[in-house]
Amino acid sequence: MGSDGRRTKQSLIWTALPNGFDGTGALRVSALVSPRLEPDADQELKAFNDFVDWPATLRSAKFTIQYGTQSVAIPGSQTAGPARVDNSIDLPDSLTWTTLIPKSTFVSGYQFKDLSSHAVLSYDTQRSTVYDSRYRGSGKNDGVR
Fold first, then answer.
1. 34 within some domain
2. In this predicted model, what pLDDT tens digit does every residue of 58-73 receive, in sequence order?
3. How far apart are CA 84 and CA 61, in angstroms?
C-alpha cells in the first residue's frame, strides 16, 4: 500500500546477464532489474516503499541463482567469498539514491501494451552467418561492411 493507504502494485523483472569468468574460471552473472510500478492515485515514489531506499532494499534481499541442478543463495549484503555481490566498482549507496531520487519523484506508472497481434521479424542467425561469410570480401556486395 502507498503512504496514503491506497493500493499500489509493483513487480520486478530480473534478467541474468553473462558477465564473463572470475579468476578461477567460474561463471560471473550480472543482474538487470526492470521495475514495473503502478501507482493507484499518489503518483510519487513514496507509494513504493521498496524504492524509496532501493540500496537498503537490495542489502536486505537474498538472491537465489539456479543453473541446471545447482542453486546458490546470496545475501544482498554479502561482499566476500566466491558467491557474493561484486563490490569491485562500488555498492549501491542510500545517501546518493535518496538525494538523486527523493520520495517525491513522479511515477507515471507502467501500463501494459498488448502487442500479441503484431508480427515479429526474426532472422536465423546461423544462416545469416553463412551468408555473411560467403559474401563478405568476395567482391559481391562490397558496399556492405
1. yes
2. 999 999 988 889 999 9
3. 12
Task: Please say whether the dihedral angle defined by the alpha carbons of residues 69, 21, 19 and 90, taken in this order, is positive or negative.
Answer: positive
> How many domains would you assign to the chain?
1
Q: How confident is the model at residue 117 (pLDDT cuts 50, 70, 90)?
A: very high
Residue identified by cell 567482391 is 139
138 part of a folded domain = no
Q: CB–CB of 3/45 below 8 Å? A: no
- Whether this prediction's pTM lies above 0.85 is answered by no
Q: Which domain holds residue 36?
A: 9-114
For the residues 93-104, what does the mean pLDDT come to? 96
Bridge partner residues of 18 (DSSP): 29
